[in-house]
Amino acid sequence: MRLRDSQGRDWGDAAAYIEHRSSEPRGGKCIYAWMRLPDVLERDALYLGLFRLAAETMARAH
Fold first, then answer.
1. Of these four, 4, 17, 22, 27, which has the most CB atoms within 10 Å of its CB?
2. Residue ranges per structural domain of the chain
3. Torsions phi, psi for 58 (to 5 deg)
């Protein structure tokens, strides 16, 4: 997820999902969310989306 303002200016990564497949820690997974993202987006929807992504990812792995 990238942040862009109303003029289209790119402010960089806001959230990312990383899955290590070919490098150590092989099988490791990480969800990154910019610490100020809840101030920019609707907080409940953001957290629901992040936890849903984590739960769905874990369910596919097992």
1. 17
2. 2-61
3. -65, -40
Task: Write out the two tokens for 54.
Answer: 């984590």
Q: Is 27 left (phi over 0), alpha (psi -120 to 50) or beta?
A: left
| pLDDT number for residue 27 | 82
Question: Contacts by 31-39 with C-beta closer than 8 Å and gap 24+?
Answer: 34/3
Q: What is the CA radius of gyration of the chain?
A: 14
Q: Are 24 and 36 in contact (CB under 8 A)?
A: no
pTM above 0.70, yes or no: no
Backbone phi, then psi, for 61, in 5-degree steps?
-75, -20
Contact, 59 vs 49, CB < 8 A? no
Q: What mean pLDDT comes out for the span 26-36?
A: 85
